[in-house]
Write a structure and sequence with these properties.
binds S-adenosylmethionine, single chain, 7-stranded mixed beta sheet, Rossmann fold, 10 helices, 2 domains, alpha/beta, 45% helix
């Protein structure tokens, strides 16, 4: 099975021998890849919707992997029992949905050693929630696919000190690792802030002035990170 760049980058964070749950598996490509490449011997493929789960079942059947990949219907982590898996992948969903899945049953969530999360939006909110709820982001990676840059986070239980709010937007590990896509990624954020700033032109309300000041501060920090990355 050939995976897209995004899905392949996610699988790279799975340690050989891990028991994995792929939450919201849809097509089931990740579980099939993990087993056929001898990364995992046991994978749970779950989805809240029957249609996507059936699609996963078909992929698994085509590869004759029913013995190694178990499909389960249900929302979030509910189909998984505590300590049944060591690694959970939640990819291709919004950051707020991922956050809600994690917070639904914190005891169950905390029983899992490692999460590989790939939020499509609201990455900043997710990072904030993770750190405020005693998780640490131990690694991060950017991956490009079809002109879009995806953010992948590796998360474990533990404490993390965030020295500056900018690290919620631009993951600290991306900066420490000097991720090859970081410069383009920061430029995108800078452009987004510039657009917000331009849209505020002519507005004089307190709210607009506050937003303008936030924008200036955000741009200053983004430029600072960019110049550090370029060194
Ligand atoms: C866009 S697809 C992503 C599929 C795959 N994980 C990927 O990254 O390519 C999102 C999948 O998540 C499932 N989903 C949405 N909310 C869910 C939830 N609360 N629990 C489990 N699965 C969910 C959807 O049914 C859908 O199959």
């Amino acid at each position: 099975m050939k995976l897209t760049n995004r899905l392949l980058a996610i699988t790279k964070f799975v340690k050989k021998g891990s028991v994995v749950a792929d939450i919201g598996t849809d097509h089931g490509y990740i579980p099939v890849y993990l087993v056929t490449n001898n990364i995992s011997k046991k994978v749970f493929a779950t989805d809240v919707n029957e249609g996507p789960l059936n699609s996963a079942k078909e992929t698994i059947k085509e590869h004759c992997l029913e013995k190694y990949i178990e499909t389960r219907l249900g929302t979030g982590l509910i189909p998984i029992k505590p300590y049944e898996v060591d690694t959970v992948i939640i990819a291709g969903m919004g950051g707020l949905l991922i956050r809600d899945i994690l917070k639904n049953d914190l005891d169950l969530t905390k029983s899992i050693k490692k999460f590989i999360l790939q939020p499509m939006v609201a990455q900043e909110d997710l990072r904030k929630w993770l750190i405020q709820n005693h998780f640490k982001i131990i690694d991060e990676k950017l991956e490009k696919e079809d002109h879009r840059i995806y953010e992948i986070m590796v998360v474990e239980n533990g404490e993390q000190i965030v020295e500056d709010g900018i690290y919620y937007k631009i993951g600290k590990k991306l900066i420490e690792n000097k991720d090859p896509l970081l410069e383009v990624f920061i430029q995108k954020h800078i452009q987004k802030q510039k657009n917000i700033f331009e849209n505020l032109e002519g507005q004089t309300s307190d709210k607009a002035n506050q937003k303008r000041n936030e924008c200036i501060e955000e741009l200053r920090k983004l430029e600072e990170v960019l110049s550090w990355v370029r060194q």
